[in-house]
Sequence to fold (370 residues):
Amino acid sequence: MSHQAIIDYEGEAIKCCAICKTAKETISKLDKMLNEIDEKSSLLLDAETESLKNSILKEKSKLNIRIKELETLAQKQQSMGKISGEQSQVSKSKIIVNKASEILASCQELNGSKLLEYQTLLNKLLITKVEQRNKILQMMSSGTIIYSDEFAKKLNAVQDDVLRNYIYLEYIERENAGKSFEELYGQAKDKLDLELQNTISEKRESIINDAIERLKSNNVDEKTISEITNVKELNKDTINQLQENVNNEIVDEHIRKETIKSIIKVIEKRGFIVDRKNIKLQKDKNQVVVIAQKVNGQTAEFKVFLDGKFIYKFVNGYEGNACQKDIQPFIKDLDEIYGIKVKKSQTIWSNPDKISTQKYQSFKENKNNN
Fold:
């Protein structure tokens, strides 16, 4: 007989690992900025260079630590296998994924508008007048305090490293003598916004090309790449949105790839042989088709979709209820070994080759609602 069913899956561990992997790929771009600082460091004051570099390293280190912690938790969860119906365990699983999503959002901002702000500050420092920098250096070396304790307290309270540097650069301008911290803050914010937009305009082509390259390297189809990168106006907000769209697509690709790997492992464990030539990516249908066969000729076909479903179909070589002997262990392995929880199973077609009293019914299993 033949039997075909649609199953929704929710692999929380796979999803978390995919998000973490994408986050790491995203912040790896910061290394390019650090190299640029090193190359131009001879043109800057040591203190300025180190401050900028350390800010980036600090941000990157924090994110890497958080990513590593979540990856460890996700891998532990996946190795435990089946997530039972206890609400506490289900909630814990979802919390891990939510935390991973929060980290990815931080990585997106850091690699998007924040990275461009750092580049804008670097350019600002490079064009600062030589005599002005020399004057600051002399005052620093002589131990001269160039601003009051009250000003220092307000300046140090500014969490944004780039904005803080811009406020300081406004402070040392002669024409700003006597202005309040609040006035300097406003001026610095306006200048940063203006110069950041100039940086974005200058780098528009490289920003779009970087997004295209990331998507291509993760096997995203040309149509999707075109849709994502077709951004008419680039600014701080749209750059962050572009980063989010790129990363969401890459996360989906990682999830699909890992899900296919898991399905193939289960198929092979059950005695099927999977020829890699029989794994076909059908981009026009947004699916991957896997065909597996046993030595005795029994054949199974799997279609994995990006929307969180896969279809399995046991065809050639099955009679009566024989396919059930392969279907049930297959579902159990996905659930218990690879963290893919069966939320819903629905029979959409069955055709017994021989008369049988076996009844094929739809059933629903949603552990999250227990």
User: Anything to note?
Assistant: Confidence is low (pLDDT under 50) at residues 317-322, 352-370. The beta strands are 2-10, 273-282, 287-293, 299-305, 309-314, 341-351, 363-364. The CA atoms of residues 161 and 364 lie 52 Å apart. The two ends are 34 Å apart (CA to CA).
